[in-house]
Amino acid sequence: MLHGPVMVDLLGAEITGADRDLLLHPATGGVILFSRNFESPQQVYRLIRQIHELRSPHLLIAVDQEGGRVQRFRDGFTLLPPAASFEHKCGGDLHAAKQATREIGWLMAAELRAVGVDFSFAPVLDLNFGVSSVIGDRAFAKSADNVAQLAGAWALGAREAGMISVGKHFPGHGGVAADSHLDLPIDERPFEHIEHSDLRPFMHLIGNGLEAVMPAHVIYAACDPNPAGFSRFWLQDVLRDRLGFHGAIFSDDLSMAAAEHGGSYAERARAALTAGCDMVLACNNPDGACEVLEELRDYHDPVAQSRMARLRGRPMPNVRQLTHDRRWQKASELASRLIADTTLDLNLDEPI
């Protein structure tokens, strides 16, 4: 059974009959897990095994596990610091911050791979201009160069743990105050401004093998009348052609308020795929997800399916084995120090 173009969610910590129908639908290609699906590492491992057993090749499994405010799995997982803490806690020492970021990227990925998650929707490549509260400390820095360096280190660490990275929110969500979960943000800046600031982290990571991208539900009014996730200009002309990106493109969640610009759920899904997305997320609205799945029942894109197949995680030790790994022990200690309230000597010169 081939992968479909839709990533769906589940109702709770166990697979219900309704969930099973969604997971077996021919248009389904992946599952995103939320806090409501998680009770413990052992429970989520069993849940993922059950999902895998339904389809061959198995459905992709994803989660938002950035750290800080956005960490869906907590109890039994290491609490991860927000992205902004690396630059701050290392006192502006970019070399030390990159070392720390690489280890936390590895830690995040290793823990998720140990329970069977293929990838996290991370890292955030937005710039923290001090404008967007929904981004805020989810961004690594204000400087485009520092975001590029730190996010690149995060992606390198994740890759060492067998996990791909998804850079978001293309071409940049940091320049608008509105929260796209609740409203439709409009960024009035000209393309040249965005190109010389927000796009630079994406350029850097794409040049270093970034595997996937998620566009923003933001309208960049001087460039295109559609939100980036529904825009051929942003996804084809800029991301594919100008930046030379050959990886996978995920829509952001079609249930977000900003996505209503695209029409009905079925129309949003079609618009995102036509613009250039390879997979659309239909979450937190079961009726909307069913509408999208039926609309795309017979949809096939062999190129997109090939891109999705490359996102599977590589094997990693199980949770018990991982906690005996010296790198995990030191990275977990590092995460705790980064979360502490004061600037600390992180002892990063000692090999991890």
Annotated CATH homologous superfamily: Glycoside hydrolase, family 3, N-terminal domain
Instruction: Give helix and strand order, one letter per element, not per position.
Output: EHEHEEEHHEHEEHHEEHEHEHHHH
Number of domains: 1
How is the main sheet built? 8 strands, parallel
Helix/sheet category: alpha/beta
Total of helices: 13
Characterise the protein shown here:
An eight-stranded parallel beta sheet has the order 6-3-2-1-12-11-9-7. With 352 residues, the chain is an alpha/beta fold. The mean pLDDT is 94. 53% of the residues are buried. Helix 4 runs parallel beside helix 5 and helix 5 (144-160) runs parallel beside helix 7 (199-207). The longest helix is centred in the N-terminal third of the chain and has 22 residues, at 94-115. It is 39% helix and 12% strand. It has a single domain, classed as TIM Barrel, CATH 3.20.20.
